[in-house]
Task: structure prediction
Amino acid sequence: MTKMTISYCDKDFQLSEEFVKITLGLDSFYKKAQNSSENGFLTSEGLVPVQLVEAQSYQYNSFAHILDDYKTLYSKLNKIGNELRREYMAKQVNGMIYYVNYLEGKERSFRNVVRNLLFVDANPVAEWKITRIQQKLEVQLRAAGYSGTVQQMYKRWFEDRKVETADMMSVLTSLIQTAKDDVSRKMFEDIHSIEATPKLVKDVPFSAYADYQAREMLINVDYHYTYEDLKHLVTHEVFPGHFTHMYKREQAVIAGKIPLDASLVITNSASSPIFEGIADCGQIFLGWYENEHDEIAKTAQQLKMCTTLNASYLLNELQREKSEVANYLSTEAFGQENWIKSRIGFIEDFLRGPFIYSYHRGLESLLPIVLSTPLEDKQDFYHLLYENMLTADELKIF
Result:
């Protein structure tokens, strides 16, 4: 593998600054008259949940002006020297042009929204794939000594592995520290300077959330988790997931190694699937799939990702009733009632409905590349992956 396949020219840095000014201006304009859900948490996020470094922003009073600025920027991208970077920025800017149309209400096809914002397969996960995941889960649970239907076995396994709410803080604190130590040892030595504190929250449309700027990992305690679930959430949200990824991007931008667009985390962009894919590979990076319970939890997590993607398709593309979507998640993913409520609160949001595709589609794009990267190339791969803005297309060369 080539140690560094993406390089940057002066024009790239200039155009990136222009992209950031326009995007921050769009975010500010959208927040003034947004069309998101009534959930206060998601409403406050807007289009740019995280801005890692301070930057200038344009001020807008119309979507038309924003659209013109993006189109002008798009016309200049051929001046970027590196082909991979040029292709990435073309997708990113073109996606933002489409985003403006979506925010204005001009695009009604949910499939088109997913495809043109995230650049992923907008189809639901095939039912035969869901069935295969359930069958795999059944085999794993029987091998672990359980009997009955797959749903009965999973629920009994879940109760056996469940962490009580009273123990959550101590378990999470321990897992976060262990994960941080492993990242420092196996991936990035400089991560020791980052702290992460768990915080228990209620009535939010997510299981866990990386509040990087507050250095807090939020976790929803309206429902329960197994110990293995918590391992997954820690590696996804904190180390070596989102906290680690944002820290490496932040430091690279500050050092002038990469352009300014890396300082923005945008809800629904060409980079979103890889952003989530990196987080979902966290346990693989650390070697945290250690026993049969980890494997069961991994299969159950895959089932939840695929069925939640399908739930968004049912709700937003096929316009099915929430009760039907809730029943689907109950029967196919064996979800807890409050988990289902939280998931529907997420996918019914104007911005997060499409974004849910980033999880499964991001993991399926990144995972084969991660698994095929030779051991001797791991460190170079980690730096390429964490310190550059990418889509699956740029990574396919590996």
